[in-house]
Known about the structure:
The structure holds two protein chains of two kinds. Chain A is an alpha/beta fold. Chain A has eleven helices and 13 strands. Chain A has helices at residues 43-50, 72-76, 94-105, 110-119, 133-145, 163-179, 191-197, 215-220, 262-272, 284-293, 298-308; strands spanning 3-14, 17-28, 32-36, 58-63, 79-82, 151-155, 183-188, 200-205, 208-214, 223-230, 243-249, 252-258, 274-280. Chain A has a six-stranded mixed sheet with strand order 5-6-7-3-8-9, sandwiched between helices. In chain A, strands 11-12-10-13 form a four-stranded antiparallel sheet. In chain A, strands 2-1-4 form a three-stranded antiparallel sheet, covered by helices on one side. In chain A, helix 3 packs parallel to helix 5 (133-145). Chain B is mostly helical. Chain B contains 22 helices and no strands. Chain B has helices spanning 7-17, 21-43, 47-58, 61-67, 75-82, 86-108, 110-115, 123-149, 154-181, 185-211, 224-229, 243-262, 286-325, 330-335, 338-375, 377-382, 388-422, 425-437, 440-456, 464-481, 485-488, 507-529. Chain B is globular and about 70 Å long. The relative contact order of chain B is 0.09. The chains are: A alpha/beta, B mainly alpha. The interface between A and B is large, with 43 and 39 residues.
Amino acid sequence: MTEAIRTEGLVKTFGRTRALSGLDLAVPTGEVHGFLGPNGAGKTTTIRVLLGLIRPDGGTARLLDGDPWADATRLHRRLAYVPGDVTLWPNLTGGEVIDLLGRLRGGLDRRRRDELLERFELDPRKKGRAYSKGNRQKVALVAALASDVELLILDEPTSGLDPLMEEVFQQVIREEKRRGDRTVLLSSHILAEVEALCDRLTIIRDGRAVESGSLADLRHLTRTSIEADLAGRPAGLADLPGVHNLRTDDGRVRFDVDTDSLDAALRQLTAVGVRGLVSQPPTLEELFLRHYQRGGDQPSRTATAEVAR
Amino acid sequence: MTALAGTGQLSRLILRRDRVLTPLWVVFIAVVPLSYVASINELFPTAAQRADYAHLMQHNASFVTLYGLLTGSSLGELVSWRAGFIPGMIGLFSILTVVRHTRTDEEAGRRELLGATVVGRHAGLAAALLTTFAANALLGALLALGMTSQDLPVAGSWAFGLEFTLSGWVFAAVGAVAAQLTTGARSARGIAILVLGVAYVLRVVGDLSATGNGALSWLSWLSPIGWVHRIHPYGGDRWALALLPVGLAALLVLAAVTLAARRDIGAGLLPPRLGPASAAPGLRSPVALAWRLHRGLLAGWVAGFAALGVVMGGVAEGIGDLVRDTPELADVFRRIGGAQGLIDSYLAGTLGLFGLISAGYAIQATLRLREEEAVGHAEAVLGTATGRLRWAASHLVFALLGPAATLAASGLAMGLTHGLNSGDPGRELPRVLAGAMVQLPGVWVLAAVAVVFFGLLPRVAAASWGALAICMLISIVGPALRLDQWILDVSPFTHLPHLPGGEATATPLVTLTLLAALLAAAGLLGLRRRDIPGV
């Protein structure tokens, strides 16, 4: 399997700020890859390195088997990029910008363009200054999605879109996925979106990848919450490795358990006799929060607020 | 007054953002009339000579067009008359400043960011007006103090300062109204500058009529520029006339506030128009995009330069009359080459000024790169299969060829007007055109300085304007202040041949062009190696 993107030990500093400190990221061809992290984690910096807009201070980056800095122009023919903060020329209409960007990339599919305009309910005749943030985002999305390219790099593409349009966006990306030959790097801090669209994901924090794998892999790392009404007092539950936050209240126990220890924990419960059982499946959100609350320092609070949005 | 809450903070923000540009402008404009004192004193040291000169100028249509009516021949009156074109320039600067801090901010969404904080709904407008009014008041006071220091009458000097201040106030208020009308800063600027243009034309037609039968002289009374001229510093000091511009400015501010209260933030009173749903087939390259972004500005500059050329070319022959009609001054003029020599030195001096102004265009066109980068447009273009050099070149084409177009337009217009006046267009047109075109290498050096800043020190790219200000000071006040030659040599314009009339040498042209190419190459090399900063 070939790789569309690979970075190893990527480092980038701006003055005294260390935006990336050894970031590893690998995206196989044909995959929709979620790139998850709160604001300021280094998502946009990584993308700007991949686009050859900034040069890393350390580490390597490969993009479509080329060097993103040295081969920028050649590589950009094969990719389309949607920035997180889209600004349009005030005196060009949305339609003009879509066509121009498409042509500068080397052509765009006329029919696809018109179809996307309709699905995103975008009026292409308005001047750039007249669009709202969401509509500016749509202009960049239509320009990127209507281009016949191998790689889509989308930096928080749905910020500013309303829920209806977010749904349209998800449909379109699912269609892209079915084609099978397009790679998508989707940076986001919206977990539901990543869960709905991505095959695999990388979670970054403070400029470093802290977790990477398929959704199933990552869920495996999380804990299930168990709440049970028991016939008697459970014995030995507290001694089991992988059981956390155990609280006992008469015949009622509540605890979180690592996926590996789930089986052993349930055995303990059934040995006593289970009258009622509620189990909460592991969510990505929980995993995310766990990563960002570890340490309990400033960035983690931002992360919590971000997820709560 | 909750509607004005936060005006103080916003004013400080404006002062912070304009901390380089506005002081430079204020000092520069206050200094220019001082150089007139020196040059008039030198050319016409006695009262009799000044009276002769004034007598001639009073009836010269071209000078009346440019400077206004001359009513007396004292040193102060001659200086304030000679500075008669400056109120229009102050008006322009005030319009641009007010629109930049109101509608431009609103269009960019910065106003919204501030509007959500504890800032009253009129605070933005109030802060823009307050700072512009204050800058103009300071400019007037500096001018008055400067003129007093030259031993000119104190009352007249303050009246002179008032003339400048009030022209700024009126047009700042015009800009404030225009900024409420449209959603785009560009159209707001256009509307306000149109008003300024109409005021100028009314003043010109009225004044010209006054030198003849006077049938239309009342038109000058419809123009704020006519009003401030008629304060007549040093020649009556008609203070009461100040009430007209002050009253108009007050009315306009009131109108702007009323309009602002009736509309939403971001909206205008004139509805935005729809454009084409898809791009024209030609819009497919970086340079085609750059053409879309530069063409309006370039067309404006070319038209403005052609108009300037007509006016300045029309005056030239009148300067020759000065020599022919005043035998008493013949001696003075013979030293500088007689009528022809005087006309040529005027033409060459004017063309040198055109060169400096064109360098302003060249820097503006170059810094468009920085602007595109700072707002994030560059990222969109560089994210496509467009290399950095190709992107930079698409804008630099305008920095290189735009000044060629403005200078050619002014040279052609000036040569043709002067040629038709003197009866020999076949001789004058190529001479004047050549004098205009030799300015190009000097213009290119300044554009290249802007490329160096953009490529190597993008954060301080606006310092390129400082380079232009230095060249302007050297060219305009350097000779009058008798600065050392090595200081004069700093400006590329010092090295250009003085055409028509002077010696035509190719060496400085080639050297300066090479220097410009080297500087530009260094800047572009820097651009290739540096990061493109995020928004």
